[in-house]
Amino acid sequence: MNSRIYFGIVAAVLFSSIFATRTLGANPTVIPQTLPADSISNREATLHGTITLNGKPARVAFQIRQAGKKRYVSRTPWQKVVRGQTNVSFSAIVTGLVADTDYEFRAIALVGVAQRRGNQLAFHSETEQPPLTPVATTGAAIDITT
């Protein structure tokens, strides 16, 4: 390999490493982690996420869509994470689900002006149960007076 090309590559790698460490800190990219949903019913589910902010302020939320759709069209309200927190867990309840349907969701974060997207997970809403037929039973008569 030509020594000039080699020197140029080494210099570029060193510069980018030093620049990233000095300007962005030890954790240059803050990415939320999407965790599995729970409390899933035919109409709602609870979504969970976590993020390591290293003291930075942020806003966090979830995007959700029916599986197979191209775009995320729904988002939970933003939750504010104040400066000074490190490992933050967050959750949101989504309602209005369609019974017996696959959904995809992911945690998102707004750190400064950059929006970060977490990994995508999925869940299946429960099948809607038919209403129970009321059952009435009549007991024996007691304390009868004439």
Strands, helices and their partners?
Elements lengths: L2 H22 L8 E6 L5 E9 L5 E9 L7 E2 L3 E3 L5 E9 L6 E10 L2 E11 L22
Antiparallel strand pairs: 1-2, 2-6, 3-4, 3-5, 3-7, 7-8
Structure description:
This protein is 15% helix and 40% strand. The protein has 146 residues and is of the alpha+beta class. It folds into 2 domains: 1-28; 31-124, Immunoglobulins (Immunoglobulin-like), CATH 2.60.40. The strands form 2 sheets. Strands 3, 4, 5, 7 and 8 form a 5-stranded antiparallel beta sheet that branches. Strands 1-2-6 form a 3-stranded antiparallel beta sheet, with no helix packed on it. It is elongated and about 85 Å long.
Kindly report how far apart the N and C termini lie: 115 Å
Number of domains: 2
* Main pleated sheet: 5 strands, antiparallel
**Annotation, overall tally of beta strands:** 8
- Rounded Rg: 26 Å
CATH topology of the largest domain: Immunoglobulin-like
